[in-house]
Amino acid sequence: MSQPEDKGRPKIASREEWLVARKALLEKEKELTRANDALSAERRALPMVRVDKRYTFRSLGGEVVTLADLFDGKDQLIVYHFMFAPNDDQGCYGCSHTADALPDVRHLRLKNTNLVCVSRAPPDKLRPFRVRNGWTWPWFSSQDSDFNYDFGATVDEARLPAELNFRSKGETQALGKSWYTGDVPGFSIFFRNDGRVFHTYSTFARGGDKVIPTLQLLDMTPLGRQIGPYGPAEFKLKDEYDDEPALGS
């Protein structure tokens, strides 16, 4: 049986003892919430970089569009870098689990923000995988452009000086971390003003944890996330849970 992530089970206590411990933890939780609010303010205050290079994408219908088109009339754009390389037969399991958590885009559009997913695989591969998983958010292929490479979502030293989560290969290895070549998941944020497009923020590695409710819910349990080295990629696709009845069955 799995053990809690702190390697030991919580001790048994009386309700009174539990309440004392819970109130002490609540103060730490409030402190973390305030710190996160302050960090979010710093994130919003990051300087913006104008995007002058022309990037083109293909919609699932094969239409060629630009980065500005992805805004779809809104001033803000959230791009999820979904790992699905041109030679892959299906999308990444971890990215698929994150994609399951993405909201109905209409909620974001109400707040002047559009959300799309971008992968290097061609539309003919993206389209059936999207249908299989029941996703409704817009998905575009960047196969014919430098978009993934320029914004850190594909690490390829043969293409340009590569960085993994904003660190060079030397910096990454100096920290005792493994270097990786290929596609990586992440989010990039863009802002449009007077017809000009700006890059404001990107996050990779565990930076996307906060949008995955499965992990956030497991964080509240005694056993924790129970996640191994592959992280969210350990979860199955929805149609692979043969031993679990579908919702409403």
Compact summary:
The protein is α+β, with helices and mostly antiparallel strands.
The CATH superfamily of the domain at 46-210 bears the name Glutaredoxin
From the N-terminal CA to the C-terminal CA, the straight-line distance is 28 Å
Across the major sheet, the strand order is 1-10-9-4-5-6
User: What does the average pLDDT come to?
Assistant: 93
Q: How many whole angstroms does the radius of gyration measure? A: 20 Å
Pfam family, one: DUF899
Protein name: Thioredoxin domain-containing protein
InterPro entries: DUF899_thioredox, Thioredoxin-like_sf
Features:
249 residues, two-stranded antiparallel sheet, DUF899_thioredox, Thioredoxin-like_sf, Thioredoxin domain-containing protein
Protein architecture, described:
The model has no long low-confidence stretch (mean pLDDT 93). The strands form three sheets. The protein has a six-stranded mixed beta sheet with strand order 1-10-9-4-5-6. A two-stranded antiparallel ribbon has the order 2-3. A two-stranded antiparallel ribbon has the order 7-8. The two termini are 28 Å apart. The protein has eight helices and ten strands. The protein is an alpha+beta fold and 249 residues long. It is 30% helix and 18% strand.
Topology:
Elements: H1 15-44, E1 49-50, E2 56-58, E3 64-66, H2 67-70, E4 76-81, H3 93-101, H4 105-109, E5 113-119, H5 123-133, E6 139-141, H6 147-150, E7 154-155, H7 169-174, E8 182-183, E9 186-193, E10 196-204, H8 213-218
Parallel strand pairs: 4-5, 5-6
Antiparallel strand pairs: 1-10, 2-3, 4-9, 7-8, 9-10
Protein name: Thioredoxin domain-containing protein
InterPro entries: DUF899_thioredox (IPR010296), Thioredoxin-like_sf (IPR036249)
